Target: Glycosyltransferase family 2 protein
Amino acid sequence: MSKHTLSVILITKNEADRVERCLQSVAKVADEIIVLDSGSTDSTVEICHRYTDNVTSTDWPGFGKQKQRALAQASCDWVLSIDADEALDDTMAQALSNLLAQPTIKHTAYRLPWGVTLYGKTLKYGRSARSVLRLFKREGAAYTPDEVHETVIPAAGSTGTLKGFLLHYTHRDYGHGLDKAAQYAWLGAQKYHRKGKKSHGLLLALLRASWTFFHIYFLRRGFLDGSVGFIMAMTYAQVNFNKYVGLWLLENGR
Model:
């Protein structure tokens, strides 16, 4: 029996084709599941109600503020923040269960190795070879209010890494990937503009994009993921280029 309780927080909108896989992966380990939905028009809310009664319909203030709202509803000792397009693999679900069963937990937060899965392949290199901070002690934690690429600031203490993979089914198909990349680039441009960051011109935008591709494909060995690794390196490069072009245009009032 778990000695530490776990709140799972999830924000959704039109995720009917993916959210059940996510919820199934956490159902056995969670003491409570909290869902904030921002206007789904498909069966997302209905599916979520199969796993929890704590489903709230809200407006959309941005990723950081929405996740902070979900965190504010959590009541357990620990919080796992998961997205609808993610799922714990069996190894990670067991590692999490074992961790919560320990009398004392060494760290105040844990990183979860990402297993980005798209176009039929789980990527092991490039930008996908990352661990994201998603598991943390509830007391003293808070989210940054960023529109996109928000981060959680955990309570003071050390950070560990959980075994297994947080599978991330990031794209439904290539078209969805393009739409998502465009959205993130524009939100990133607005975020940088709000924070007063400068673009330093379009040439630097191109150089940043080129460096992003080189860093992901060569330095982080994205080429070992084959053709999908190449597609992802190009996608991240394009996102970085579009983000700084957007910032340049905002700076010049265009």
